[in-house]
Structure formats: C-alpha cells, structure tokens
Prior knowledge:
It is a single chain. The chain is mainly α. It has a single domain (about 1-105, about 115-355), classed as NCX, central ion-binding region (A middle domain of Talin 1, Up-down Bundle), CATH 1.20.1420.30. The chain contains 15 helices and two strands. Strands 1-2 form a two-stranded antiparallel ribbon. The radius of gyration is 20 Å and the shape is globular. Keywords: Membrane, Transmembrane, Transmembrane helix. InterPro entries: K/Na/Ca-exchanger, NaCa_Exmemb, NCX_ion-bd_dom_sf. This is Sodium:calcium exchanger.
Amino acid sequence: MVQLTVWIWVGALIVGVFAAHWGAERFAKPLKKLRRQWGLTAVAGGAFVGLAAASPEIGINVVSALRGVSDIGLGVMFGSNIVAIPLMVTTAYIASRTNSLGDRDSSERSQSNSEAQEQSQQPKTAEHERHRQEHLLRVERTAVSVLALPYLGILGLVAVLTLPALWRGFQPIDAGIIAVAYLAFLGQAVLRGREESESVNWETREIATAAAGLAVLAVGTYLTVRSTENIVSALGISRLVGGLFITALMTASPELFATWSIVQSGQVTAGTTSVLGDHAVTMSVAFVPLALMTVPVENFQLYLVNLLFVVAMPVAYAGLIHFGSDEHGFKRWEVATLDLLYVLYVAIVAFWVLNII
C-alpha cells in the first residue's frame, strides 16, 4: 500500500512539474517579445527571460515557504542549479551533433525577422559543420562576461549572507539585499547586450494566455510541493534531500526539450547559455520567499557541500568555455567533465555527508 501511494504521488509530481513549466512557457512569450522590442541580444536576454524560465522554482519556494516546508524549496533551489548546467550542456551538445544548419529545406528556414537576427549570430553553415566534425559546441564569448561572471557574484553574496555563524541561514534582511543584487545583474546584462530594437505587435489574446499560464503555474507548483511532501514522508527521507534529488531533477527535465529544440533550430548560444540566466533568477528572486520566512541552516555540512557545487558548476562552465578551446565552446571531453562533476557531487553527498553505507 505504501509503495502504491508513493507511485500515485510520483505521478502527481510529474503532472505538477509539467503544468508549472507549461504555465512558465506561456508567461515567457511576452518577455521574449519585450526582449526584441528593447533590443536585447540573445545572451543578454537570457538574464531577462530567465524570470519566466525560473518561475517554477520561484513558485515552489513561495509554496514551500507558506506551507512551512521550506527545506523542499531550498533543496530545489540548490539541486536544480547543480544539475542543470551539465544536463543542458550535454543535451545541447547532442542536439548540435544530430542536425546540420545546412540540412533544412527552404520552408523550415522561413522565419520572422527576430528569429533571423538570432540565427545570424550563430556560426555560418560551413563553420557549424566544421564544429560538428571537431566535436565542438560553439558558444559566444560574451556568455562568460555577461552571464557567468555576474552569476558568480550573486553566489558570492549568497555565501556571505548565509554562511557566517553569526547570521547563518536566510533572514528577511537578506531578501532585500539579494533582490537588489538581481536588479544589478539584470541591469548590467541589459546595458552590455544591446542591439537594434524591433517593432512588435501586442495582442489581447497573448496577454490573456500569459495570465492563464501564471494561474496554471501556481497550481502546478502547489501540486509539486504537496507531492514532494508525501513522497519524502513515505520514503522516510528528509525534505531537503527530497528537494535536492527528486524534485530538482524533475523540475529540470522539461528544460531538456526546450534546449533540444532551440539548439536544433540553430540558436546554439541561446540554447546553451539560457541556463545561466535561469540560475541567476533562482539564486536571487527565488531566494526571497525563503528569506522572508526565515529559514535556518540545520545541516551545515550538507548546505556547505551544495553551495560549493553550486559555485563549482558555473566556474567549470566559464573556465571550459574560455580556456578549453581556441574558439570558445565545449569539446566532447569538456561536456563529459561537467557530467563527471555532477557524479562527484552525488558521490560526496551520498557517501560522505549522508553516509548511506
């Protein structure tokens, strides 16, 4: 009976996660139009559109804080940021190997002016084919300076606000500080990533769909938190661990399809770097509801290991792009390195922190 109950709640978790991401996608469309209207590049736009992409994590944190199960939100916030970089880069690498930009017929290449602009930022067809042969996932140089380094600055601030013994944990004052940090992150991305703006048309139906998406997002995130509560209770594990390794993995899974689609369309940089914009939102805006409810750090060892790997992933991401290849991108061995870094994280948590054997 317990086993059956677990599977029922696993099904509910899957429904909740995909409903939340469906709602986030509807909410993202107006933000993407604003990005074009304001003349933001694909890389800079990642910091802005990341508000929608990270909205499931924001919603989960809000619901978990209101329900008094903030450990779930904390686990999702850290777990999704650790697993997403290797998961999305691996997906982007595979997607870029399975399709050539030159293999599309004329009808598939037909696109709007905005899409053509993003496409023009990608390597030419011949270069793309060469990168495939060289096993290189080409990423624009600006991904490091506009997204990765400022994101590391946000993580440094999180460490300062939550690690010292005198004020360890999440307090309401931290919410205001981290919100200002995100606004600074967004501002620098916008100022450093400008291009010619476009004229876009706004339709009432689009706005109504976005509002409906927000409603579905709210329902999905509530169902996600409730499902996680029941799953961890049935399995006899802590809410933090459930958030780290169950809910976080589930919330990252819908992004795989989006990354695959974006990279196959030829927008390799957009598909590979959007994860950093999402992470900046997750570690700042999604941080706010937890801080407002005052969440203590009960297992400091587990918290410290997670924070270290949350930092290690973008450091590895930026370092491998910048120094691993002369053309800025990921070689096959570098993609494998990111994957192995996640395996190392799981091993440390399982065998050193949790002592499962």
